[in-house]
Amino acid sequence: MTPKKIVFLLLINVIFLYSSFAQKYNAVDNIVLKYPKSFSTTEKLAERIEKDFTSDYDKARAIYSWIALNVRYDYAAFLNPPKTQGFSYRSEAEKQRKIQALNDQMVEKAFKSKKAVCEGFTVLYQHLASLVGIKCEIVRGDSKTRLVDIGRKNTSSNHAWNMVLIDKKWRLVDVTWGQGYYDSSKGRMANDFSSVYFDTDPDYFFAKHFPDSESYLGDKLSKEDFLNGPLIYNKTIEKDYKIKSPDSGIIEVRNGDKITFEIKNISKSDQFYYLNKRNQPVKITNGRERKGGLEFQITFDNTIGEYITFFVDTNSIAAFKIVSK
């Protein structure tokens, strides 16, 4: 390869990396990136945020960014959770005081140690939001993150997230997932800031979260849709790859059946494919662009395994469970 070609390829790579970096962080994030990794108190951090931002929306985003950039998920604590602290009380007021004291301890531990599980992330977010005058709630419920979660029979209370009231509208926030993800190939947490779980579209949010209350702002949510829906990923939310068809994440087929899919915002020019059961990529070649998306068919045969996951470039966007009749 000639020196000119090498320089050109390096330049293209630099441009691509810069573009990816620029897309990852917005104007608020870029200011927060310059903050110290540690503040002496949560009040000092809140003062800095109030100094730098005027709107509640930007303040809420700044809290999200600082936590996601600086607090790591404590996977060791997840695997070996501490014993639940019990306490006695004589009145509701005393109960609330003791709960508040436990929450204060959790906030301090997450803030000082820079490590937490989802409960620590949510109480720290709520605490900082209260310091800048933003109303914030903690919601507990189920999460959907793995292929085996498609078609589960029951929900469980295994996760927590926040809702913040901004401009008279409740916004959904999951700062735990904003800080990174579990890399199963390496057996550890990967730090990878993502903004998609700040003010997430409820349709996408509740495809991956199901509250214990089974409702959102007074409206009942469908447990069946949550349990049986396809598994979606961060890139699905970021690029608005809405799945228009099929309706369910569980597909019952016989050998030779054609399965029709339609996904929004994908075009024929995209590097779009799925993995067969040998983890080999199979490019989608029969796609038809239709109403701002791509409609295509997959013929079920013995090369397709129990799950089928679709990718754009190297990013997984949707997975379905295949049930052979």
Characterization of this structure:
With 325 residues, this protein is of the alpha+beta class. The protein folds into 2 domains: 25-229, Arylamine N-acetyltransferase fold (2-Layer Sandwich); 243-324, Immunoglobulins (Immunoglobulin-like), CATH 2.60.40. The chain is built from 11 helices and 20 strands. The strands form 6 sheets. Strands 11, 13, 15, 16, 19 and 20 form a 6-stranded mixed sheet that branches. Strands 5-4-3-8 form a 4-stranded antiparallel sheet. The protein has a 4-stranded antiparallel sheet with strand order 12-14-18-17, with no helix packed on it. α3 crosses α7 (118-131) and α6 (92-113) crosses α7. The longest helix is centred in the N-terminal third of the chain and has 22 residues, at 3-24. Mean pLDDT is 88; it is low at 1-22. This is Transglutaminase. Residues 110-177 form the Transglutaminase-like domain.
What is the CATH-assigned architecture of the largest domain? 2-Layer Sandwich
The parts where pLDDT drops under 50 for at least 5 residues are 1-22
How much helicity do the residues have?
25-40%
Please summarize the sheet with the most strands. Answer: 6 strands, mixed
Q: For the record, give the distance between the C-alpha atoms at the N and C termini, rounded to a whole number.
A: 53 Å
- Percentage of β-strand residues: 25-35%
Number of structural units classed as domains: 2
Name the CATH class of the largest domain. Answer: Alpha Beta
Please compute the radius of gyration using only Cα atoms: 22 Å
> Structural class, from secondary structure content?
alpha+beta
Give the overall shape, derived from the CA principal axes. globular
Kindly state the number of beta strands. Answer: 20
Tally the helices: what do you get?
11
Organism: Flavobacterium pectinovorum
GO cellular component, one term: cytoplasm
Domain Transglutaminase-like: 110-177
Protein name: Transglutaminase
